Request: fold
Amino acid sequence: DPRRKLLRLTSSMAEVALDGAFDLDLLAEMAESRFAGLVRAVGGYVAPDDTTAPPEAAVRGASRHAAAGQTMNFSYHVKINNLLPVGEFFSTTPFNVHGNVAGNFSSDPQWLSVGMKGTLEEFYIGTIDDGWLMKDAVVDIRIGNLGESSVLENLTADLDIDIGNGIVAGKSLDNAGLELHYANARGIITASGRVDSILTVVLSGQASIQTRTFVFDLDTLRAKAGDYGWSNDQDVQFRLSDEGLRIMRAVFRRGDEEL
Reply:
């Protein structure tokens, strides 16, 4: 039954299982095309004339399938044991991942949706001085309505990441969290964490897309080290466009002090 396939791959690096209606060739082409389109859509706001961006391409595998054959709907599970050999072979930048993720993938000629939930015991890329190291991370990601046109207007996304501890560019990071909910070209974002074991940062606010501009309005932006901390006086506004980053209303208070 083409609507119910089962694939299991096992190696010392990873164990992969797919269950449902899928085509591996079409899956690779579809995912590459749609996510490359998402990258182009985001980059178009901050670098609309970037000639280095990859050109838009049709889904090559789709030409061999009728419309019904372009529909996929399956579940997956991936246990990642050790990707260090892959990093050593394909990249001069070291990276590795250990963890378990599972979710669902569905697509048709118009839309792609994917969900992923799991734990990453360890993830790193680069070195301690200039890279990222994350441990004990819990991820829950859902992306929907990813199409070929009006990408950011149609896209929906929910992201929830909690990181036990890690190192970012030489700075320790503990108890970090990021939550994002996005739909109808608007989003709600919250984030928090402790940097270098002493500085606690908390932020929350809204994000939206305006003409050629990403807009971020943070209602809350606080930084505190021990009893010494600063909080925003009013919403802090960020505007990111092809003209650069503009910051407004960045006024912070600590008692009677103002920064």
